[in-house]
Design brief:
The chain is an alpha+beta fold and about 475 residues long. Helix content is about 30%, strand content about 20%. The strands form 2 sheets. Strands 7, 8, 9, 10, 11, 12, 13, 14, 15 and 16 form a 10-stranded mixed sheet that branches. Helix 10 packs across helix 11. The protein is globular and about 65 Å long.
Length: about 475
């Protein structure tokens, strides 16, 4: 982030691609918009909702629509999962209110005549649903705002793009898929024509949707892409990320390709979702060094200490699947220990940027993370650091994979759940009900994988057991 952007960081609504409510009415009146996609992020960060006639939305649904409460109580395949307090068979799976956020009316240029509106979920009595990811993030933002701090965030997203459509990949049981590029094209500018065309179409779509990327590049693994977004207010940054994933999938399918946001889609391939953030007091970056300072600003020091002491207890919120933990491997550029350092990509938390652009890069979340929950976990850990002031361990120089004194990242989702389920830090931040909700979801994911016989088990045991 450049220093001359600081005064514009919290004024994102002027961005191209957004409509005011009056603007939407005018666009509907002249026939430019016919459909409103009313969307909520589910527990995985996927957009779920309904396509509504735009006139019906304006006439009847500005105060709220309805959707089944099971949207926050299913597994990855949208199967209802019993055992949640929010809803269940014993409660009849009733409706929740879907409250449009009128500040998020966004044109989707890749879906002509369509706008997307993010929404919040509320109980029939009007109380917002405490386990909804968007609300969980908002609560953490309010806790920091009460301390006079605003949050700026930006995402650095990786995914792998394969040849062939999703039905073709499914028919192949996701085996022997061909990446769109056959080898390492990291930082390359001579891309295959189909990849160049995809980039151009994606960039145009994101600009049109008010979600302009800062950069697009190929990464180190065959078919791997990295898209980086500029700094901005935290909640809109997450909303924009969900639109980006929606656009990637739509545009790839239209071009006969399939993206995956798995954290580890193949052996020795890892895709991350790096979080860049800083705290601001008014127009002053609380992480920026003042003239003549050599030590870390106190707010940054406490934030770092909070991240290193708090994030170990919240891994299911930024590494939510068994596959997430296969990304954490030595010398993979994904961290294996909770460390911090100056411009050190082997650490879990990296100090980067200059002057007013100085910020933290949190390298723990994988591509499969829900952005709202990953950011909420980071902010909860930072709040923990600001309020309890834990000791900050020394920074790591050199190879952080060799930092044997630092706490290791959980080896698997079961270990992560054990640290999360009874964590006082997590409960203080999110409340016991939210921790129970996501612990239940995590346990269901673990159980689902335990019942499956994998290819590796067959290869190692079929003829040898």
């Amino acid at each position: 982030m450049r220093g001359d952007q600081s005064s514009q960081l919290f004024n994102h609504r002027a961005a191209r691609g957004f409509l005011s409510l009056d603007g939407l009415r005018a666009a509907v009146e002249v026939g430019e918009v016919a459909t409103v996609m009313l969307a909520i992020p589910d527990m995985l960060g996927r957009l779920k909702g309904k396509r509504l006639d735009a006139r019906v939305f304006l006439e009847r649904m500005l105060s709220g629509a309805e959707a089944c409460a099971y949207l926050l109580a299913t597994d990855v395949d949208m199967n209802p999962v019993p055992g949640y307090c929010l809803t269940g068979w014993d409660q009849g799976y009733g409706d929740l209110s879907v409250i449009p956020d009128e500040s998020t009316i966004r044109v989707l240029s890749y879906l002509p005549g369509t706008v997307l509106v993010h929404a919040d979920l509320a109980h029939p009595d009007g109380e917002l649903v405490s386990v909804a990811p968007r609300h969980m993030l908002r609560v953490q933002l309010e806790r920091l705002q009460a301390r006079g701090l605003q949050v700026c965030a930006g995402w650095e997203s990786e995914f792998v793009l394969y040849e062939g459509t999703a039905p073709q990949a499914r028919a192949a049981r996701y085996r022997r898929l061909r990446p769109v590029s056959p080898h390492n094209l990291d930082y390359a500018l001579d891309h295959p024509p189909q990849l160049s065309d995809f980039f151009q179409h994606l960039e145009d779509a994101l600009h049109g949707a008010g979600t302009p990327p800062e950069s697009v590049k190929t990464e180190g693994a065959p078919g791997q892409v990295e898209v980086t977004f500029p700094y901005g207010p935290a909640l809109p940054a997450c909303d924009s990320y969900t639109v980006y994933k929606h656009a990637v999938r739509h545009i790839a399918q239209r071009r006969g390709m399939t993206p995956t946001f798995m954290a580890a889609p193949a052996a020795r391939v890892g895709s991350g979702l790096h979080l860049h953030l800083s705290l601001w007091s008014g127009e002053r970056n609380a992480f920026a060094a003042r003239f003549g300072e050599t030590d870390l600003p106190e707010t940054m020091r406490q934030s770092l200490a909070g991240l290193l002491s708090g994030l170990p207890h919240m891994a299911p919120l930024y590494a939510p699947t068994p596959n997430s933990y296969k990304r954490f491997a030595p010398h993979s550029f994904a961290p294996t220990r909770f460390t911090w350092g100056h411009d050190n990509r082997t650490c879990a938390v990296r100090i980067t940027g200059h002057a007013e652009g100085r910020h933290l890069e949190i390298r723990l979340p994988g591509a499969d993370a829900n952005p709202y929950l990953a950011l909420a976990a980071a902010l909860a850990a930072i709040h923990h650091g600001l309020t309890t002031e834990p000791e900050l361990p020394p920074h790591t120089t050199g190879d952080a994979y060799q930092a044997r004194d630092a706490l290791p990242v959980p080896r698997d989702l079961g270990e992560a759940l054990a640290d999360f389920d009874d964590s006082k830090i997590a409960q203080n931040a999110f409340g016991a009900a939210a921790v129970r909700h996501y612990a239940h979801s995590t346990q269901h994911e673990i159980d689902a994988h335990r019942k499956r016989v994998t290819d590796t088990e067959l290869e190692r045991g079929f003829l040898r057991a």
